[in-house]
Amino acid sequence: MADLRGRVGMFCFIAAESAIFTIFVVAYLFYIGKSVAGPTPADVLHAPIVLTICLLSSSLTIHAGVKALTKGNVAAFARWWLLTLALGAVFLGGTAVEWHRLIYVDGLTIHTNLFGTTYFSLVGLHAFHVTAGLAGLALGSILALRGYVRPVHASRSDVFSLYWHFVDVVWVVVFLVVYVAGR
Amino acid sequence: MATQSLALPQPAIATRPLVDRLHGWITTVDHKRLGMLYIGYALLFLSIGGIEAAAMRIQLVRPQDNFVSPQVFNRLFTMHGTTMIFFVVMPLAFGFANYLVPLMIGARDMAFPRLNAFSFWLTAFGGTLLYFSLLGANGLYGAGNAPDVGWFAYAPLTSRTFSPGHSTDFWTLSLLVSGFGSIGTAVNIITTIVCMRCPGMTLGRMPLMVWLNLIMAGMVILAVSPLSAAQIMLLVGRYLGGHFFDTQAGGSAVVWMHFFWIFGHPEVYVLVLPAFGAASEIIPVFSRKPIFGYAVMVAATVCIAFIGMSVWAHHMFTVGMASNANTFFVLSTMAIAVPTGIKIFNWLATMWGGKIAFKAPMLFCVAFLFQFLVAGLTGIMLGAAPFDWQLGSSYFVVAHFHYVIVGGILFTIFGAFYYWFPKITGRMYSERLARLHFWLFVTGFHLTFDFMHIPGLLGMPRRIYTYEPGRGWDVWNLIVTIGVFFQAAAVLVFVLNLVTSWLSGEDAGNDPWDAWTLEWLTTSPPPPYNFADVPTVRSRRPLWDLKHPEDPDWKYE
User: How far apart are the CA of B255 and the nearest CA of chain A, in angstroms?
Assistant: First the structure.
């Protein structure tokens, strides 16, 4: 029963988050090509293929971790979650590098033009969710390494993994909107 | 005949010190206590918002009055609207949902008690933040105190250029914070209803109050989240120099309108659905008949929720949208009258042929039926774009939505107060004072809001701080203001009734209304665990089955 409660609660939370992201995506799409000054997306954006592969594969590793815990293998759980944490951190680091280049090389900030406003808001909102997910992953991994995680916690880690899958799915949408449709 | 009496020594129950009791309330995760906190908090803000309304009406009582300055008037209508929507009616809806949903489905608490407390305190903090603006909003500019951009805060009025200081920041942060609280509570309500129902309580046997709160919570998730997103965009604009709503940089002020009303119109249904729920519990009990058309009621509510998500731009006809957009939003607005009409006919059919007892809760519900019908009719008028071009942003609109929110929602909530007061406190309220409250409020309501339509038709725009004599508005404004004092007196009687009845009312017993839903099965007030034994349900009226074992409902369902 507690298992079901967590899942239903998380699905409701994900529905609310989806509505928030929808508004930002709609704003992004509506404002494509409406900036009155440069730089434009075509000038400065390069599709982050490797980072995308990192983030999407982290959905597989977190799932493997939950499965290992369901079977009672806490050590494997810790290893999978640390790997997930690493993949997520690579993604976030890649975003940081991209933002640094945009700000200091291309001169694009959130204040520069409408493209900058919508780009940094949408990608930033997603990056914020990745950061929150990394905090959760770090907490789970540390607890596992220190021996506090037991197989009964499998359902909780499963509920958390739903959030992480959601963050990945949102990235697919953001990627398509920002790096495919928006360019 | 010797009556055996057991003379047990009475254990000395020392009253705990006040600090302890306060600590208990502040740290509580019990759904009933949180429900009461929500309701008490809403009543506090109801009085604040009411005083703001009264101040505005005093200013408008005659032409060229100087009771408040134009600047203060702008703050008054902004704070009045924001307070009444976000910190009165929403908390009242959540308060009753919190208190009643677990009891009605035979559960011992909400699904996530700590999330519940967290959500309440977020809402409480949001309201405090809004009013803290009176002290904190000056900023370095020495400009402004309370927010004065109107409750829908259209761009570009909210930009740094036109709103220096921090008043708009307080407004947006307050709605962001309380919005997160609302989303948390909505998640909790849905999870509770999906996962915590007692044995036998199938979806088709849930009380309508529970059904309508389930749908309300779903709408909160889909409607309040866009508002939060829009507030984040506004903050990005004000603090980081973003251009979402900055027309000089290619942004669009109309986009803010869309984002706001994508929240704003479903919000009306968020507020009205719990009121519908209360009416659907009260009307059957006081007509001594089961609700007419249960399944259709649920279906109509789901219809309202679906259509209600797609009517938002009828608030924007005067902006000048494309004609196909106008057509779509006119048609969807007309369509929503159908499921709403079905509900009104179902309530009437429930009363038809019943043994109606006109106790206070029923009086308020009957008034609600008439008034909500009128509110719906003016809604259809304003839903026709050409009519709206004439009367949009006039006092006709103000009269219309107050008819919905006061005449529809607040009346039913007053009914709900009287109906569940015996359960919440264990005491019976004073029927005499309740009737006085009802008649004063009906009189005041109709004086104010019936006559408010007329200056609107005569061309009086909303949000003006004064007007010139000789436009034919004077006498109507005078009548409207007189009605306010009746309403204020009625609310004082209401509060007096609550306080005196709670302190010294008669014992109400577990089930004073001979009602049928599970909350009346347990003691009044219910113990912290609600039910000693988790009940089992076999029909939509479990208490009827218990009281009438020879003719139970489950034989026919």
Answer: 8
